[in-house]
Design brief:
CATH topology of the largest domain: Beta-Lactamase
Low-confidence stretches: 277-284
Structural class: alpha+beta
Order of helices and strands: HHHEEHEEEHHEEHEEEH
CATH class of the largest domain: Alpha Beta
Helix content: 40-55%
Radius of gyration: 24 Å
Length: 284
């Protein structure tokens, strides 16, 4: 019974931290409403998280925000770290020009995971704390781009798993049958989403290759009320593809730097070999 209470307390604490992480600033009363917890419980959790250095309260506004220390929770999440490092400069540069938010997503089992995002800096974004979120592969531009441009062998394996999981055959998306959507993605040279997932937005996504592998997808998100899909393609496809080309050119350098850093870290953590003792000659 005590163990169950401890587990429930941990679940509540992680939920509160996740809610705070998804907002630029949030009041305890709002957290209680989103997390569906009593306000006193939320206050106790926030005080504990503050003591641990994960969150802090702005005393003037009463808003709670995550602190830099919270990033330590993701320090072990190193999959394709070098791709993130290579992509960020281009994401920032492109984001400043077009203003719409950008997400860097990677494939993980049957979903796309946001690895990096400019949502926190885009004036046109209403979403924050996006990094780490899992998105549906069928109804996101990044997922459709990955499926459209990956190898036939990998695509068949993914689609077979999705058909088994969803019970759909053929697979359908909010923009129509998947095979028709993928054909259009290949024709456009980018993945797209106009319907489904988040109804108020649409998106375009370009694949980032390294050798013969797709390492990630760079996705541009815009409001559907601002433009049609055709207009978005006309205005942003070339910029998106140009940014991806720059990222791809820099990948070998970042990969080499990360490998060198890993080798140095491994060498530093290896204890020195003991010096063998020399035997003194026996004196008779």
């Amino acid at each position: 019974m005590a163990r169950d209470n401890q587990i429930n307390s941990l679940k509540k604490g992680l939920l509160v931290l996740q809610v705070v992480n998804q907002k630029v600033g949030i009041k305890a009363s709002e957290i209680a409403q989103i997390a569906r917890m009593p306000r006193p419980t939320v206050y106790r959790i926030l005080e504990t998280l503050e003591e641990l250095g994960f969150v802090a309260q702005d005393r003037s506004s009463g808003l709670w925000r995550v602190k830099l220390h919270a990033k330590s929770l993701s320090s072990g999440f190193r999959q394709a770290d070098w791709i993130v490092q290579a992509a960020v400069p281009q994401m920032v540069s492109l984001g400043r020009r077009i203003l719409w938010p950008l997400d860097l997503v990677t494939f993980n089992n049957d979903s796309m995971v946001i690895r990096e995002s400019t949502h926190d800096f885009s004036p046109y974004s209403v979403n924050h704390g996006m990094v780490g979120l899992h998105l549906p592969i069928l109804d996101t531009a990044g997922g459709r781009a990955y499926l459209s441009f990956t190898s036939e062998c990998e695509r068949d394996q993914i689609l077979q798993a999705l058909e088994t999981k969803t019970g759909m055959n053929p697979l359908m998306t909010a923009d129509g049958p998947l095979h028709e959507v993928m054909a259009k993605c290949r024709e456009l040279g980018v993945g797209y989403r106009y319907n489904g997932f988040r109804a108020e937005t649409a998106s375009l996504s370009a694949v980032i290759r390294h050798g013969d592998r797709i390492m990630a997808c760079l996705t541009l998100i815009y409001f559907k009320s601002a433009m049609s899909l055709a207009k978005a393609i006309e205005m942003y496809r070339d910029d998106l593809l140009s940014a991806v080309e720059e990222i791809q050119r820099s990948l070998p350098r970042f990969e080499s730097e990360l490998r060198a850093a890993d080798m140095q870290s491994a060498a530093e953590s290896t204890p020195p070999r003991p010096t063998p003792l020399t035997q003194s000659p026996l004196v008779s």
